[in-house]
Amino acid sequence: MALQPLAYRMRPRNLEEVVGQEHLVGEGKIINRMVQAKMLSSMILYGPPGTGKTSIASAIAGSTKYAFRILNAATDSKKDLQIVAEEAKMSGTVVLLLDEIHRLDKTKQDFLLPHMESGRIVLIGATTENPYLSINPAIRSRAQIFEVKPLSEEDIRVAIRRAMEDAERGLGDYHAVLAADAENHLVYATNGDLRSALNGLELAVKSTAPDAEGVVRITLPIIEETVQRKALTADKDGDGHYDVISALQKSIRGSDADAALYYVARLIEAGDLQIIARRLRVIAYEDIGLANPAAVARAVTAIQAAEQLGFPEARIPIANAVIELALSPKSNSAYTAIDAALADVRRGGHGDVPDTMKDAHYKGAEKLGHGVEYVYPHAYPGDWIPQQYLPDKLQGTQYWQPKGNSKVEQAYADQYQKLRDAQQKGLH
């Protein structure tokens, strides 16, 4: 047990110990219901590394008391699958976590299918790939597909503290104390990857000598070394992480290229490529948006290049994106428009989709009047004709409020207004 990594030892023994993924394992949610009803079915879990796919499989097995086995679709053979199948015949049911299921070949797949259908093997496939694109339809049709989402910083913090306190499986016997700024950095620097966080924590504890009082004191510099990521600041509350990201977006929004370069340089120095990529994508669409769609597209391309290159070369396309976004015309009109539409949706009570807009591609739709009076715009000059699209109670609602901060957005604004005027005239 001592030789097994901390992340392995801390795997949840039941659903209650799973960190995060409340949308799947929380009270009343789908996997929780399966376990409670003892009606397990094969499933595919997909999401980023270190977010809990193996943990969920382990917790399902622990909660149901079924045997739990782990294989890799790429490296383990058909013979390994046969061993699991034989065990399932003896014990009744085996929960099999099959990692990298997107790499399952046809021979192994054909062997697994009858065992999945009989229920002897509850297959839990794990993958970082989109299963709708990467997994064979024969497997996909026999399994439910669930997305495993990145863990929140609070989820990571809970798991870290649990590992620090657990004397049986964790680090509780080491008398270790994790400084607040060290904990913050461990949470932030691992970007939702719990496995990386626990690996860094275990290395820090086991490689640090106790002080004169017998306490292993884990400081920020130690965590920086064990996770190989520098902290943005050493402030006590860890706010520097958010402050720098906030300053980067505000500098670009305010068109200060030099300030934006300075703040992105701090993120680069900290090695936060994932954070930079995500934030620049948000900035491109939120703050530049329809004022300069070409700049948005170029920024996304630059971010993709940075992710493919990695540091240190990634700094070059990042700099290109930051400078162009900072100097570009700005508009948040699309961002505010979708928020206005969402506000209406969340308030509810706006009536049904108009009958003309309803799906008519099924038997009986015509009797219900669905889609009967829909007019096909492409059959008319200019590929347009006035007809009602919004529900009755929302007729005339204007969500998009164009700003016209560039020739591009002004052209969109002119077309938008022209179509709104023609629509209102045509419907009255």
Keywords:
single chain; 428 residues; alpha/beta; Rossmann fold; Helicase, Ruva Protein, domain 3; Zinc Finger, Delta Prime, domain 3; 5-stranded parallel β-sheet; 7 strands; 8% strand; globular; DNA binding; AAA_ATPase_RarA/MGS1/WRNIP1; ATP hydrolysis activity; ATP-binding
Report what the structure shows.
This protein is of the alpha/beta class and 428 residues long. The protein folds into 4 domains: 6-147, P-loop containing nucleotide triphosphate hydrolases (Rossmann fold); 153-227, Orthogonal Bundle (Helicase, Ruva Protein, domain 3); 240-327, Zinc Finger, Delta Prime, domain 3; 333-427, Orthogonal Bundle (post-AAA+ oligomerization domain-like). The chain is 51% helix and 8% strand. The chain is built from 20 helices and 7 strands. The protein has helices at 6-9, 22-25, 30-37, 53-64, 78-91, 106-118, 131-134, 137-140, 153-165, 180-189, 194-206, 220-227, 240-253, 257-269, 273-288, 293-309, 315-327, 333-347, 365-368, 407-427; strands at residues 43-46, 67-72, 94-99, 121-127, 144-147, 176-178, 216-218. The strands form 2 sheets. It has a 5-stranded parallel β-sheet with strand order 2-3-4-1-5, with helices on both faces. Strands 6-7 form a two-stranded parallel sheet. Helix 9 (153-165) runs parallel beside helix 11, helix 11 (194-206) packs across helix 12 and helix 14 (257-269) runs antiparallel to helix 17 (315-327). The protein is globular. It starts with 5 loop residues before the first helix and ends with a helix. The mean pLDDT is 89.
